[in-house]
Design a protein that fits this description.
This protein is an alpha/beta fold. Helices cover 50% and strands 12% of the residues.
């Protein structure tokens, strides 16, 4: 390498937004900033042809400079609404161009650039910083220059002197006196550029100025005296950090080959057909030309897909070899694509014409792979990463997740998905090469289907990056206090025996409480309680029936409590110690990405998401989930995220106002539907409003509300009618979403994750109504799940903290006790700013030595 170009990507993106006139793609999404950013990127790649090009990004959370000065950058305007939806595509575009990306938590892009610039310069590279920010002038020296792409202006040492009237090494002190209004850096009030130039010309440095104050007379002396504190504060604020350490060698920041297929797909999605034609003119097909010429009349989903040159894998030349750590180090290219194949024959990795059989427990093999920057492919790649004990791996393809994005309710194991999409079955006693061939075929088919259903963004933005995060979480596990569980088990056993005696006494005889037949006989034959539900085998004794009978006979309430405690003891308190690893004292749940229809994660073996929390005894179980000695747990929980998303999607003024004013949403809703002042809302009215709020989000009707509240259906109908009169936007959203679902066959989240709902076309009214409820809820719950995923990715990428568990809207972390307060604040800030809705996201955080205390 000879040249390295370091791009202040955040700065370039903002400047592009204001420089390029408004543009939108055929879906109505603003694209002008992305267009300008791509134009400048292509100018660099085409005209400059650097060996190394690095995009450096600011972090969303405040930098260390905000600790020094709370008002640092406080004067910045809110991000323009048309810029927000373009941000998720920015890094994706950079990745598709093969450009390295670097950022660092608590530091700005300036600091990343400063540190890389000096490191590269010391290694003999010619460094060019691409930015229009004057702060970078302090870094200019022989071998490091500036380049403003918008003005096509290059600045070297002499250029800095010409522009600012001081040397590059004096720029920090120059800005310390002049200040920087764009960053709200104070400086010395009354000292301008001419005054700073004169002072530095005479006394060389800021310290020199203040050491010679006695020589400075008049108003300048007074200004300097009064501005001493702000001057030295400004000096710290404008100084670019240049000593950050990076794990990645500079050689690995070289420009990678452009991922042509993926880039082409993204360009077409953004509506950049002229870019697509220019960049791929040599392989452009007739389909591309047709799509470009007929873009105005063709709807997005029917636009002709461009033909693509497919990478042919010459599998007949591949060979199967025994695997050793030395072979992997020597034969596996550190940047190659690697297939991880799990089959009944064992674990294999395939790359560069060879298939290696891997002993997953071989620590040397894991170490050999961990030091490479491999791009993993496979089906359920997370299981491969876990088997190899690989952390922070990069996953570029997962056929399980691709199939899940395409159709969430059509997921099975590999053979099922392969058969569904390729119409083939694996041969009996399939060899590793048979498996590899099938995986390659399935990838090609799924990629085409993803393009047709516009699912690439969801897969690449959310699901693929999350694979390694979840693998790390599963490998880490959650520490269990086994003695605490043993104590709870004994206590539960005593309470269960007491309840058993009370139930037998209420029944007038002993019987097997766990037998539905015997219980039904006691309830409906002997005690003559009214049966409310019948099954094929007799009268039902499920929880709904028992709840309805609780007001009529004490036995029903006792049985409900008996079942709760029995389930708690058998499912969790007694089971968890057996599932706890002897090696680390932790339980390692499996977090499933492709198990729900809404995009939510699920937890199995054991299921840690369903530990009861509505009862005191259920909450006690969380006390057994503890932090390691010297560490504590942090709980970060999104508050009412689905209702906030509903307010945003429905664009309902009433709901939005409640959240914008930070009101108790349930009390505010009660105030609206019952016509009472907010401060006069009763607990009962709030309870009703809470049931309505959450019921509406799940498409619940009058029957469901009546069941939930135990009120007549007519009263429930009236309550819902009053709700819709006050919140007309919600009603309109529900009706429009159902219509869209019927017309398209699917509904979508804010990010484009689709849920196909066949029930909407059913001839059965009951099934259709269930489909309507699903259509109403899926965009809300699916968006919530994707926002949580975004938060997980952001925290995992940015903070030095172990993420242990995700439970719906709650994330749990483990960190050293002394770091807990700071990290909790950073997590809260990061989660609340991970995406901009029209109402604020709110996160509740807490920390403690166990889960119950933290929550």
């Amino acid at each position: 390498m000879k040249t390295m170009y370091l791009v202040d990507a955040s700065n370039m993106f903002y400047r592009a937004f204001f420089a390029v006139p408004p543009l939108t793609n055929d879906k109505g999404m603003p694209t002008n900033a992305l267009y300008g950013f791509l134009s400048m990127s292509m100018k660099l790649l085409r005209d400059v042809k650097p060996d190394c090009l690095v995009y450096c990004f600011d972090q969303k959370e405040p930098s260390f400079r905000n600790d020094l000065f709370a008002d640092y950058k406080a004067n910045r305007d809110e991000m323009p609404d048309d810029l927000k939806p373009q941000i998720p595509y920015l890094k994706l575009l950079a990745e598709r161009l093969g450009v390295a990306q670097v950022e660092r938590a608590r530091y700005e892009a300036d600091d990343v650039i400063g540190s890389l610039a000096l490191q590269a310069s010391r290694q003999g590279l010619e460094v060019v910083i691409v930015s229009g920010d004057k702060d970078f002038a302090q870094l200019v020296r022989p071998g490091i220059s500036l380049y403003d792409t918008m003005k096509d202006l290059r600045t070297d040492v002499q250029g800095v002197k010409d522009k600012f009237g001081v040397r590059p090494d004096q720029i920090v002190d120059y800005l310390a006196m002049v200040g920087d209004t764009s960053d709200n850096v104070p400086g010395v009030r009354g000292i301008g550029p001419k005054g700073a130039q004169k002072l530095l010309g005479e006394f060389d440095t800021l310290e020199g100025v203040y050491a010679n104050l006695y020589k400075i007379k008049g108003a300048t002396h007074t200004k300097l005296v009064e501005g001493r504190e702000s001057a030295f504060l400004a000096q710290k604020l404008v100084t670019i950090v240049t000593d950050l350490a990076f794990d990645v060698p500079l050689e690995q920041l070289r420009i990678k080959p452009i991922d042509s297929d993926a880039l082409r797909t993204l360009l077409l999605e953004l509506g950049f057909k002229s870019f697509e034609r220019k960049m791929f003119a040599d392989v452009a097909s007739t389909a591309v030309k047709v799509a470009a010429s007929d873009a105005s009349s063709a709807p997005p989903q029917s636009e002709a897909a461009p033909k693509r040159t497919k990478k042919v894998v010459a599998l007949e030349k591949w060979v199967e070899v025994e695997c050793t750590a030395d072979e992997l180090r020597q034969q596996v290219d550190p940047y190659s694509e690697v297939w991880g194949l799990l089959s009944e024959r064992g674990l294999y990795i395939a790359t560069n014409g060879k298939v290696f059989r891997v002993a997953s427990t071989d620590a040397e093999i894991s170490a050999a792979l961990a030091h490479k920057h491999l791009k993993w492919k496979g089906f359920d790649v997370k299981q491969v990463l876990k088997a190899l004990n690989l952390h922070a791996a990069r996953v570029v393809w997962d056929s399980l997740l691709a199939a899940y994005v395409i159709r969430a309710n059509m997921i099975g194991d590999f053979t099922e998905v392969y058969s569904d999409y390729c119409g083939k079955t694996l041969p009996d006693f399939a060899t590793p090469l048979d498996h590899l061939q099938a995986h390659v075929e399935l990838e090609a088919v799924l990629r085409e289907s993803l393009r047709e259903r516009q699912g690439e963004f969801v897969l690449e933005k959310f699901d693929l990056p999350l694979v390694s995060v979840l693998a790390d979480m599963e490998l880490k596990g959650f520490r269990i206090d086994v003695e605490e569980l043993k104590s709870q088990s004994q206590s539960l056993l005593e309470d269960i025996r007491r309840l058993e005696q009370q139930i037998h006494s209420a029944a007038g005889e002993s019987f097997n409480i766990g037998s539905p037949k015997q219980l039904a006989n006691i309830l409906f034959e002997k005690l003559k309680l009214p049966p409310t539900k019948k099954t094929k085998t007799g009268y039902s004794t499920d929880s709904d029936v028992l709840e309805s009978l609780a007001s009529q006979h004490v036995i029903a309430k006792l049985i409900v409590e008996y079942r709760e405690l029995t389930k708690l003891k058998n499912t969790y308190v007694d089971a968890l110690p057996a599932l706890c690893s002897n090696e680390d004292g932790r339980v390692h749940t499996r977090l499933n990405q492709a198990a729900t229809t809404t995009g939510r994660l699920s937890s199995t073996n054991p299921n840690l998401q369903n530990i009861p929390i509505r009862t005191e005894r259920g909450r006690l179980v969380r006390r057994a989930f503890v932090a390691a000695p010297g560490y504590c747990l942090i709980s970060a929980d999104y508050s009412q995220i689905e209702l906030r998303i509903l307010a945003h999607i429905a664009d309902d003024p009433g709901l939005k106002k409640s959240f914008l004013d930070d009101l108790d949403i349930h009390a505010a809703t009660a105030s609206e539907i019952f016509g009472t002042p907010l401060n006069s809302v009763t607990p009962q009215a709030r309870r009703v409003a809470k049931a309505v709020n959450f019921g509406i989000a799940y498409g619940q009707g009058a029957f469901g509300l009546a069941e939930t509240l135990g009120i007549p259906r007519g009263e429930a109908t009236q309550i819902i009618q009053r709700y819709f009169e006050k919140f007309r936007g919600v009603k309109a959203y529900m009706e429009q979403t159902v219509r869209d679902g019927i017309e398209r066959g699917y509904v979508s989240t804010l990010f484009g994750r689709r849920r196909y709902i066949e029930e909407l076309k059913s001839s059965s009214p009951m099934i259709r109504r269930a489909g309507e409820r699903a259509a109403i809820n899926a965009p809300i719950q699916g968006t919530a799940s994707d926002l949580v995923k975004l938060a997980m990715l952001e925290v995992h990428r940015s903070l030095p903290i172990s993420m242990l568990l995700q439970v719906h809207d709650e994330l749990l972390f483990e960190c050293p006790i002394e770091d807990a307060k700071l990290l909790a604040a950073e997590i809260k800030s990061m989660m609340e700013s991970v995406y901009q809705l029209s109402v604020p996201l709110k996160v509740n955080v807490g920390f403690g030595n166990n889960w119950d205390n933290a929550h």
